[in-house]
Amino acid sequence: MSHEWILCHQQQRVRTLTLNRPEVRNALSNDCLEQLVQQLEQADADAEIGAIVITGSSRYFAAGADLRELQQQTVATAMTDRRPQLWQRLHNITKPLIAAVNGYALGAGCELVLACDLVICGESARFGLPEITLGLMPGAGGTQRLIRSVGKALANQMILTGEAIDAQKAQQAGLVSEVCIDALTLERAEQIARRISEFSPLALRAAKAALKTAYETSLSQGLLAERQQFVALAGTADRQEGITAFLEKRKPTFKGV
Question: Does the keyword section mention Signal (predicted)?
Fold first, then answer.
């Protein structure tokens, strides 16, 4: 593709991906989403990367889908659209995804935030699903992930009114884990990503998989899946190294085996 809509930066074991479509407020067109997913899959397959940060600009994280694309859509083209597969591929990433959000995360931008494992935002951040104001509804997980994240009352209000919430409300509701001053959002997200990236890749993958199971199944199924992941780690050298290093009062060296 000729456009570079996703900028890449790597420091130690953290890969940072920056949405870069300023002319349309980082709107997530199919091509832009595809570039993002390709970069995520590349990072996911790279043993030198432990965690991934996704960020936007100071004023916009991402302001929705590309309306020009949606304007052309019919029922037939919507049914055969490649977009759902792109979101599914994003959902399949096994490494921790951290969203660093300043400014607006609306529509598909908010759905991208919801698809991340951890969200750090600045005081300027605004989260919303305004699709209803366009005669639409969220179509990339918005109705399903938001209600699981913030609960029935707030999810219904946000989706049926189309009104955004601010950073404080997002933190109270459990959508974001930390709010910083805008200038420090990315730095804080990368700091957390660095901490995460130093741990055993096998343990991180297992923990993320178990957390995702909690999101999707009953408690008894979740407990069973958690136990299976826990037992699987018993055969790893990383687990042996982690425990030995703790007992020997030294920093562990994890190798992903």
Answer: no
